[in-house]
Records
---
Amino acid sequence: MFTQISISLLTNGSARVYPEWAYAMYGVLCRELEPCFAESLHGQSFTPISQFLQCGGANGTAELHVTFFGSDREQFTRVLNGITRYELTKYGAALDVANIKISPSVSEADFCKTHLAENDPERKILLRFVTPTSFKSGGEYVIMPSVELIFQSLLAKWNAYAADNRLDAPDVLSDICAHTRIVNYSLRSAGFAIKGVVIPAFTGNVKLSVRGPDMLVRLVNLLTAFGGLSGIGIKTALGMGGVIRL
């Protein structure tokens, strides 16, 4: 089960809001949660939070997108509802909450039903990487997306989350890669500053084209839709890898 939350923020005249501020906002959230609950977030193999800060809104606003994966949404949403201001002392800034929208929770079964059975599958998929995104391969950061890196990340996140619909057959990734290609992109290099280190990354758009049987196309649609919730790449709980599927 997952719950999506969108928080509209007033920037209070800040000249600019940076995506890495999401890391400090994650710290504010963890301090407000009950200690045992906050500790449990860090003790799981799959971090049950994904979030990113979308900057550059109209009239001095920004948008924090948060997804919580888990059945204990009550405490999580109660705490988020109780935060009216994010004091980001490290950056000398404060963001006031203008509005918070909490969507109804969606179960794993319903999400699969929507994308694998009900929706018409799309063979052209545009992914907008809103916040700096990076992959790790062979111990090195990789800042150029490929079909393999994108879906390797998505499959790992899905299989860590899913209880009843895991996609861990050995040929799933190879089948997706054989039938999916990047047909267009508009990317720029970017950095994400965290803990005194700037992680090399990228932002921008990637357009995918999917061929092959209907069920494979539906599977790609499910994973890319899930990427809009989980993020893609590394450190998606801290604000990296924020993706909007268009």
Note: The mean pLDDT is 92.
---
Amino acid sequence: MVYPPVPPLDDRSQLIRENMPLVNLVVQRMVSQVPSFMTKDDMTSAAMVGLIDAANKYDATKGAQFKTFAEYRIRGAIYDEMRKLDWFSRSMREKQNQLTQTMLKLERKLGRSPEENEMADAMDLSLDEYHQLLTKVSHLGCVSLNETLDHSNEGRSFLESLQDSEDPTALDMIESQEMTYILADILEELSEKERLVIALYYYEELTQKEIAEVINVTEGRVSQLHSQALLKLRVKLINSDLYDGD
């Protein structure tokens, strides 16, 4: 693997100084996207690590602006810190795993993503109880578009696997194309509101409160739709054999 040249120390320091405001900007945008246990100071510290990492790894010959590259690294660093804190109780993790396993079985049986009422019936829950469970595990992150596809230090995120690189190998191109097809299949199977929530949350970077106003539902319902959509995403990745998570 050929690594990009590391910028001189003076250049890196200048990049960090000039882009310090970006740290606060990204943190402000992401405050509503992380669980309440993660403080703003936690996020800012992680964001600084992301900015420094971006300065160390930035390669101007790739054509991307540093601000764009740095923002991606900062967001990733905050998500990484959130996952490291391992705050969820064992019982909640078991419930999240139960959700995943139930959806896996139903999808393989039905040949499609199950509806909410089908999930509730399979778990012997009322629809309201199922919705409450989705709300409880909403911050656990069944999968996110920023989550790595494996547990190695070199793990690629779902979004990274869809991005073009400067000189992709044949294998990179095949994997990227395959992941793009999988994402397209997943989006087709999401409900209209689930697709809208994913688009507004990850690409437009709206808060759950803002999304609730856009699609005219409660903020709690947005949380449920988000959890349901991410659950479907994880199951699709598992079925595709491209996900190496637990």
Note: The chain has two domains: 9-84, 90-240.
---
Amino acid sequence: MNKAALHPDKLVEMIASLADATRLRLLRLLEQQELGVAELCEIVQMPQSTVSRHLKLLADQNWLTNRRQATANLYRMVMDELEEPARKLWLLAREQVAGGPTFRQDQLRLNRLLQDRRGDAQAFFAGAAEQWDKLREQLYGPGLIPAVIGALVPAHWVVVDLGCGTGQLAQQLAGVVKKVIGVDNSPAMLKAAKARVRGVSNVELHEAEVENLPLAEESCDAAMMALILTYLPQPQEALAEMARILRPGGKAVVIDLLRHDREDFRRQMGQQAMGFEPTEVELLLRNAGMKEAKCQALAPDPRAKGPALFLATATKNP
């Protein structure tokens, strides 16, 4: 991060860019979540021309990053990418205005939008539960299971499978570790998981959101997310929860889609994101309180029909 002082003229420009209530509202939303113009219009209840004009000014002043997804531009404010004076300026502005009634209304509408997004994923998994194992192997290849298990190890560990789906990973892990805890928010998936691990004494299943786990702090030795991150409206919150339940030095494993441009695939699968760049995943893990974050692309299985995958690992800070 660049900690050099800004030129006075540049500082005046940045202060001027914050001297508008609408731009403050947009930054507060985009600090929390990557959003498109249409979604921002819905939340702040303003026309597209107004929102686009403010976004352009904020992007010109380097408050925002944006990327193309199909026909839409998605915007985000990434705190770690702001210059230090700009970061301090934003934190001061946010502290003064964040509790206001307009910002509270924005937050409620953002929460509703994220809940609607989650419903898309729920609908997909409700219909896919019976065929999920076969579909996952067709899309991503049979190498997914060995890749995740191989990244874990010790037999005395308690391992959490976040987004356990039909319990395929949990079942295989149960034979090599002390205890497996599976968590999923889909009743249909958990029904299939319970049938799969029936009679397996060291598997425990919970219905819950991965952003709000029913597990004690520092209660697990390892946690994994396999093909879950792209379904989450707020992946940073889920990774923070992952870090919370890990013991100091505990291991996190994430396997998911590399960034791709197949919008039809994203929609078909009910996913929120079109994958992630390795550097993006490493930053998410570090921001969640992890160290030694590493993310690498996996060699695509020649039989796989879906986008390529990455494997990321990190350890909980002591």
Note: The longest strand covers residues 246-257.
